[in-house]
Fold:
Amino acid sequence: MKRYFIHTFGCQMNVNDSLRMSEVLGKLEYRPTPVPEEADLIILNTCSIREKAEDKMLSALGRYRTVKLARGTLLGVGGCVAQQEKDKLLKKVPYLDFVFGPDSIVKLPEIIGRVQGERERVVETAWVDSEEYVFPRADPETSRGKVTEFVTVMKGCDNVCSFCVVPHTRGREVSRPFPDVLAEVADLARVGVREVTLIGQNVNSYRGGISFAQLLLRTAEVPGIERVRFTTSHPHDLSDELIEAFRTQPKIMPHFHLPVQSGSNPVLKRMRRDYTVAQYLERLEKLRAARPGIAMTTDIIVGFPGETEEDFALTLELTEKVRYDNQFSFIYSPRPKTGAALKEDEWGPVPHEVKIERLERLQKIQRRISGEVTAALVGQEVEVLVEGPSRYNPLKRFGRTPENRTVNFDGDAPAGSFVKVLVESATPNQLAGKQMAVLSPPTVMPAAEAPQPEISCVVA
Structure:
């Protein structure tokens, strides 16, 4: 029996793509192994949003080379770096067997057959035309026993922000027809999934026959689904209709990840973000009025070309004003073919040491705010959807609140249960407490008792 190992870098889209790869490999009678040294096939599913992710990928390839030399393991690279670099990767990594883009997952059997049968190194990174693209349909059995699952509703992005490589690696926006989305959600509910997260590079620009707000509302009506989430969004697609969906449908969870990227209008203009800080705050105010207590998270890039100390001070000011639950903040790194990379010298590069110093200042402020938000919950009871044992202590349970806050707690409720947890302590990143009551049991047998399909997907 041949064994495979998939090493995944990056976002939820990549994690979801790796699951689809696992299903394709299963049909080829490959079985997963959690140990790469035992694998006959190793695939690195890559991310190219930041230079650091590429460096991690190349480092991992170096480690897996010894496995290839020891047992003749096939070695492939998929995902965004593959789409970006194409045959350059084969020249850069002479022991690499094949390279394939996100649109070519369904071609894995053909690619592997060519590598094995014809002894050739393969590059398969052609785009599938929007009119012909078919979204991979998840096998619901791979989700049996899971409590929460991702559902892809669109891919690609049409915004072409000057810092972002996604349009070059994922292509233009393609939306999945809404009947297909709802059918997959219904299949997931039948195997016990109680929460779904609709995902796409620019998910709230969805145009699959109905609006994104309508898709959320219909998803919430699927029997068995109790929580609906989505990621990632663009501020210009935060419509009044979407805000109204948050007001009227309680199954749409009170958490919104809305990337602002910078608190400076001149920086936003160079980023090709088509909103001002004032417009961003106006939409956010409407959202908070419609759903009081909604938790907000965001992305921020520090040290974008031309960013002055005054620009950065405005980002700190915005952070204090909005009081995000959390931020995902990074220093700017130039990406191939992007406008900012081409204009960096003209706009003025920010020295690396300045980027690091600014990032540390921003993250210090956000840690304080996050700590204040979670500390205010100590002594309160929160609703938690139990996902399983805590990764830190298997004797405890783990789940998330409607606001997407993680909770580790003492209790015995099985995965899939809704429970009340008394919060006894908090850190900026998580809550801890004890189970007080079970609000509802799981809809199917607990994950520990359900037959689990084998899937190997290590995330970095």
Remarks:
- The two ends are 27 Å apart (CA to CA).
- Residues 352-375 form the longest helix (24 residues).
- The first strand starts at residue 2 and ends at 8.
- Residues 446-457 have pLDDT under 50 and may be disordered.
